[in-house]
Amino acid sequence: MTVTAMQSTTAGLTPANAAEASVAFAPAASEFTLDNGLHVVVIPDRRAPVVTHMIWYKVGAADEVPGESGIAHFLEHLMFKGTTNYPGDTFSQEIARLGGTQNAFTSYDYTAYFQRIAVQHLPLMMQMEADRMSNLTLAEDEVASERNVVLEERASRVDNDPSAQMRESYSATFYQNHPYGVPIIGWGHEIEELTREIALAFYARYYTPENAILVVAGDVDEEGVRELAEETYGTIPPREGAVTERRRPREPEPVAERRVELRDPRIAQAIVQMGYLAPSYTLNDDPRLPPALDVLSHYLGDGTTSRLYRHFVIEQRSAAAIGAYYNGASLDHGGLYIFAYPAQGTSTDDLEAAVQAEIATFLQEGISEQEVERAKRNLVAQTVFAQDSQSSLARIFGASLAVGEALEDVQQWPARIAEVTAEEVMRAARAVIQPHRVVVGVQHPAEGPAEMPAN
Known about the structure:
By secondary structure, the protein is α+β, with helices and mostly antiparallel strands. The protein is built from 17 helices and eleven strands. It has a six-stranded mixed β-sheet, with helices on both faces. A five-stranded mixed β-sheet has the order 7-11-8-10-9, sandwiched between helices. The chain is globular.
């Protein structure tokens, strides 16, 4: 079943007035908590008789025990191997029979499972997913077979892809102490050691109602979802021994520039990347910094009207593409990143130096209030348009709450962006973008045998 996204302005929002309006994001969204601790979020969306049903577990790759990398992702695979009540692939077959779609994903901070289906089938989806929270069965041969599937996935997506190897090496260099530097899929030699017992122990520790968030978006209301949730998920007791407190190593303040470079004949396009450790919306000493970093990254490198794109692609013609983004939606420290693809005739060294020089100029000259207002309007408008996608709405709320934000934090995000000033943008920029804090990554096309990653 497919729901076509509509570029609607029914809320009266346009890029020109969105920031000033300080609108709430999905203002009709509401929440409640069941007696067993399950946090439930309901996002009414009456435009079509469909519903997106998502269960988010507050556990991801960064919560893994050292030496067991990849277990969060591996368990995600195993969750499709059947339960006592829906053995084998009955779960997937039933969704397909009803015309729905489903998938799952694992991140560093959470693991989520979702279905999109006609609203009349929501009770069955909740029953089946609640069953999967309690009654997973794993046969030894299925675990062994699925482990090979994951190893093949890693081989095809990482081991045989130099750009993916570069990304993996860059993350391991960027995070010196925090588990965000360990790949979500896991290191190959550690995936090989994952067992049925390890998977079931991880399942018992984390897949519990008190460690989960249910997000239901679509043709529903809170009362109806509450009744169904109590009948299904509400019958699951909190699990003894479950782990709901998240303790992770903290990333230290960077003190020296770091670099990682990869040369490989299979690389078709050189890329220069610069990243800076940055506070997130959840972990910060100043709650004004994350929204200011959002505005900063949008101004610097989000789209063809951004400062870096205009300078390097349109005016200087030294880059084929360039951009910037801020990852602030994480449980622990995120990052501010700039990436650039050199144009023909420009070396990576020259482009890196030029980008550093342009950033230094920006830090010295600052940003005008007019430029900040323009960036805020475009940034908020982009996000407001996301409300036109039911699944995007569910995903934004689920991801934000899974890393510790509150429902009101998400709803009031446009207002927080609207309050950002030019002074705050420069304060955030000067706090984060410092030469001794940069982590540079460069990948080069190369002739001859591939070199090993620098990390």
